[in-house]
Amino acid sequence: MFKAAINAELLRDAIAALAVIVDEVRFKIKPEGISVKAVDPANVAMGIFELGSSAFEEYSADESEIGVDLNKIMDLLGIADKSDTVRMELEESNHKLLIDVGGLSYTLSLLDPSTIRAEPRVPQLELPAKVVLNGADLRRAVKAAEKISDHLLMGVSEDTFYMEAKGDTDQVRLEMGRDQLIDLKAGEACSLFSLDYLTDIVKPTNKVNEVTLSLGKDFPIFIDFEIANGAGRISYLLAPRIESD
Amino acid sequence: MTSFKEFSETCQAIEKISSTIDTTNRVADLLKKVDIEELPIATHFIMSEIFPAWSGKQLGIGTSLLYVALSRASGMAVKSIESLIRTTGDIGDTALLILKEKRKNQVTFSSFLEEQPELSVTEVYKRFKIASEASGKGSQDIKIKNLQFLFNSSTPREAKYISRLALEELRIGVGEGVVRDAIAKAFSVPADVVEHAFMVTNDLGIVAATAKAGGTEALQRLGIEINRPIKMMLSQISPDIDADIREMGEAAIEWKFDGARVQIHKAGNSVTLFSRKLENVTNSLPDLVEIVRKHVKAESAILDGEAVAVDENGKPRAFQEILKRFRRKYDVEEKALGIPIQLNLFDIMYLDGKTLIDLPLIERRKALESCVERSTEDSKSICVDKQVITGDLDVIKQIYMEALEAGHEGLMVKNPNSFYSPGKRGKNWLKKKPLMETLDLVVVGAEWGFGRRANLIGSYTVACYDPETDRFLQVGKVGTGLTDDQLKELTEMLSGLMEGGEAGGVFAIRPKIVLEIAFEEIQKSPNYNSGFALRFPRFIRIRDDKDPEEADTIQRIGKVYSQQLKRM
Predict the structure, then answer these.
(1) Rounded to whole angstroms, how far apart are CA atoms A142 and A136?
(2) Whole-number Å distance between alpha carbons of B292 and B7
(3) Tens digit of pLDDT for each residue in B345-386?
(4) What CATH number is associated with residue A95?
(5) B411 lies in which domain range?
(6) In chain A, what's the furthest Cα-to-Cα distance?
(7) Where residue B435 falls among pLDDT bands split at 50, 70, 90?
(8) Is B256 a catalytic residue?
(9) What are the residues of chain A with a beta carbon less than 8 Å away from any beta carbon of chain B?
């Protein structure tokens, strides 16, 4: 059993944040909320998504798992008004999700969860440095880097967080000291990331006030932020580019 | 689980071997080690196939997509990869080089797990399958990311073979013949039983798994199945057809139609049509489907025939006209009215649950006649090809003249007691055509034109096929006989197939396109790696109904050469 109602904009932002990683996901539905763990086809970017029941206007659910094509949901939420309420109800017997929004009733065919890539194992990492900054600042740095290169170096040096992109001829560097950051935990950190991925991942952070980055040396980066006024959370994990032996 | 490492080690070993026997042994060793569930995959992979040829499934990974995936995996710019390919001339060697180099390669999360999973052949297959099935919005990205996964989850040496597999060219010279013998050796079953099982299933993956599971007995139980097309039996040109007829005593004589071969699978009301290359062409030919539904009175059957495009007077139209219809995907109905088709049936391989290929031709003929309805209002649209059994050379000559007069190619001379041998070209089916030698050859190289043709590919290096080594051997260059439109068409077809270095406007082409080439004579020549050269080669037409492996072979070139010597 799954029956819920939620604000359309909130749901759209949450789904959009997941859709940058994968097209098809397994939603885990539990009495306390919904969660997803998904990895992109290249095994380079991961998305961990949690949306607690308090993010919903109404919520009641047993444990179940459903397979969803995110593009389809995005399409139908694209038509909805920001202030609309989305009502969802699972028809377990015939694998359909009934969605009512803005006076439209959709019957969405669900995917067989077993046909979707299984939940990834999340590597256990100890990342020494931590940076908390405004999402718009992060997005701006990535946008600047994109113009010059296809990769971005991110690191912490003493009390400074830096992002640096080098192209064939040009380079761009952004440094942020403690005073420009919301928080900083210094530690040895310097890793290179592909902008093909970063560009997509930082898109949803634009509206977010506090984004937490956890970094190491030649280690994946954790990009972590709250959604739905603290009732939900999205974490991205992105594997670095490393000089091979 | 078989690791892809095991597979790539086999490829690597084979690459260094020149003898067919050693190659066969090495393939047999691999097949023996592979689990039964993975055996179909490994069997197809070693032949540079992802999916069995009969399935009609295309991998659909082009070179440019592969370069992007390699670029993302390695961090090397696409432009640099392209220029590297120009020096190495091979995608596999290029992949090996750039992934081996010390550069900031993308890594996957597997690098940060305690135990790193080994890439299996099944995983490689799964990723290729996902890539091939991706369609619509975002499909390019899915293809690229799945390839990127493979490159980042493998060693550079494995990546070499993954990239070659992605283009379905391992370049290790392992073809059906080697795999057939390797299956026999690996599972201790007779080669002729393997061969027969291959003929009825058209899938060496199934054959290998069946041989492993149940040996000879299980192989013998394999039969033809509806909608799994079998290879077509082929005919050859006889140097002395009169002698062959005398040897047969009596021969079954049929017209050789100037049309396109079709294999028809009927199960109840469902009709599926396959082209000579075993592509599913059902949707292009709705009128043919209707005719078969109406006039073939069998619950299930597999039939062999020739579809001929006819004009208002029922005369055959040019061969190209029928091919146009085969390629047609849109406005099919309209086209059907424009170019009516006549179906001439001449063989049956399966009827109501029974495989018939091991019956003599005369028996099959009876079965065919029993299930095709004749003399109806649209009887012109379907018929069982007229067949005369005779040993009288004068009568045969008479029929030959009639066929030519009716606008067809010539005669088929068949041994009345012969079986249907899928994929075989032998003495049981001979063809007699007016003497104007042509060869079907594969384009392996090209050169930009000059002057007025500067933006077109103006000259083509053509090659014959060597089935023993699965290689293409050059026999000459063709630059005449082409209209501007044909040049344009060929330039378009070839531009996606260029590979390797362009030096002075000359570049290599992936062997995909077959041309029919006329010539005056064949000479011995040190200039081409076949050892032969065509004198005055002339373009006749594009044979897009033929696969490169169906091109004329080096053996046939040798035969034509020695016949020439006799004539002089």
Answers:
(1) 10
(2) 45
(3) 999 999 999 999 999 999 999 999 999 987 555 556 788 888
(4) 3.70.10.10
(5) 234-432
(6) 60
(7) low
(8) yes
(9) 23, 39-44, 46, 71, 120-121, 123, 125, 150-151, 192, 194, 196, 219-220, 237, 239-245
